[in-house]
Amino acid sequence: MTRTKEWLYGWLLLLPAMALLVLFTHYPAVANLWHSFYSTPRGSRQAVFVGVDHYRQLADDPIFWQALSNNLWYALGTIPLSIALALMMAAWVNGRIAGRSVLRLAYFTPTILPMIAVANIWLFFYTPEYGLLEQFLRLFGVPTHNWLGSQSTALPAMMVVAVWKEAGFFMIFYLAALQSMSPHLAEAAAIEGASRWYFFRRVTFPLLMPTTLFVLVNAVINAFRLVDHVVVMTRGGPDNATALLLYYIYEIGFRFWDSAYAAALTMVLLVLLGAAALAQFLFLERRTHYQ
């Protein structure tokens, strides 16, 4: 096979994936950017070019800034905790312990539950006076509290749900990475007298960096694309205390039918996710060690 035929054969193999990527990722993003510079068509009134008016409106929108702030706090509270918990669970169930298959299943079960089902389960937990959490805290004399109806606790309560659901999903990747490591590394470290903590810090964790990078990218995306739980549990309340960026886009686009302004908000979200992914690859790639 000549070099030209090899080149053509390679591009033909990539063509289906590239077509799907352009059709469902790049084209919608470009179309969304174009739409953000036009007004929303309503009835017989056609869309007109408005330039950056939507972005000026966005800069003066207090709900947008609150939703963005809520989302940043949400990401800061869920991402490190989910990853750390996933790593600890994976390290535990990777050891030779009794019933580890049952433990693996128990940790992974929240991941396979539908988002709406998870939200309704936790609504029962958080129900004032009657919820499971309220009944448990009542045993210790803690007064009743409306966890989802209070501005101070609504967002942290949502964070708990996210960590509970995502940690098991991330655990699977860490468990697969741990099982792919050669057992000779631990044997050599034991012969040299290295402690388990030293071996984890100097050998295991550096070898897990490719997995950590993958998990971190997914965790950031998940933190900024949450809308199901918000719709079912709080609808952004109380007083926009749990309004996240994607939920605000959903409200603008499908409740108030202002698709052009929603497109501008979407572009902000895409820029934030792109910048976060770029920063992760630039800074973590240097610390990533491949076997």
CATH topology: MetI-like fold
Give the biggest sheet. none
Mean pLDDT value: 89
**What's the total number of strands?**
0
Flag low-confidence runs: none
Overall tally of domains: 1
Computed over alpha carbons, the radius of gyration is 24 Å
Helix content: over 70%
First and last CA, distance: 33 Å
Strand content: under 5%
Q: Topology as H/E string?
A: HHHHHHHHHHHHH
Inertia-based shape: flat
Helix segment tally: 13
Structural class: mainly alpha
Name the CATH superfamily assignment. Answer: MetI-like
Second rung of CATH, namely the architecture = Orthogonal Bundle
CATH class: Mainly Alpha
Explain what you see.
With 291 residues, the chain is mainly alpha-helical. The chain has one domain: MetI-like fold, CATH 1.10.3720. It has 13 helices and no strands. It has helices at 3-35, 53-59, 62-93, 100-112, 115-126, 132-138, 154-179, 183-191, 196-207, 209-224, 228-233, 245-255, 259-284. α3 (62-93) packs parallel to α7 and α12 packs antiparallel against α13 (259-284). The radius of gyration is 24 Å and the shape is flat.
